[in-house]
Specification:
The chain is an alpha+beta fold and about 150 residues long. About 65% of the residues lie in helices and about 15% in strands. It comes from Conger conger.
């Protein structure tokens, strides 16, 4: 009785898949094109020492108070070194880690870990002695009850 227009599910599914495929191709090409241009602009904005070989001109040194407040390179570690990029021949500053500071931090960490190991070893020994006393008392009570 319903002689209305009936649409088969198969052609609709094919149409949806085709439209999805075409939109992926169009938007995918646009995204790839946008990524290529953004990669080029990011590479230009990066410091030269991140994208090419460099030579250290001045070793890692502590930043002054003024440098720490004004130079973005000094803020992460408080130390900076001067580098020369070999390809572009640019002199730039690069944040670095001081060997002396890293060594102090390492030995402080080692000392804290040794102190914690001794503390927990003492806790284990005292707990074991307390448990041994409880077990021996329990055994003594069992023997007395016989």
């Amino acid at each position: 009785m319903g002689s209305g227009c009936r649409i088969s599910a198969q052609p609709v599914a094919i149409y949806v898949v085709f439209c999805g495929w075409m939109s992926l191709r169009v938007f995918g090409a646009a995204v790839l094109n946008q990524e290529n241009t953004s990669v080029a602009t990011v590479a230009e904005a990066m410091p030269c020492w991140q994208v090419e070989e460099f030579v250290v001109l001045a070793e890692c040194a502590l930043c002054s108070d003024f440098q720490t407040k004004t130079w973005s390179e000094c803020s992460p570690t408080g130390y900076v070194e001067r580098v020369n990029c070999t390809k572009s021949q640019k002199d730039e500053y690069k944040s670095c880690r001081s060997v002396v500071t890293e060594e102090h931090l390492f030995w402080r960490f080692e000392g804290i870990m040794l102190a914690l190991a001794v503390l927990f070893a003492l806790l284990v020994v005292s707990r074991q002695r307390a448990l041994d006393r409880l077990v021996s008392e329990k055994v003594r009570k069992q023997i007395e009850s016989i």
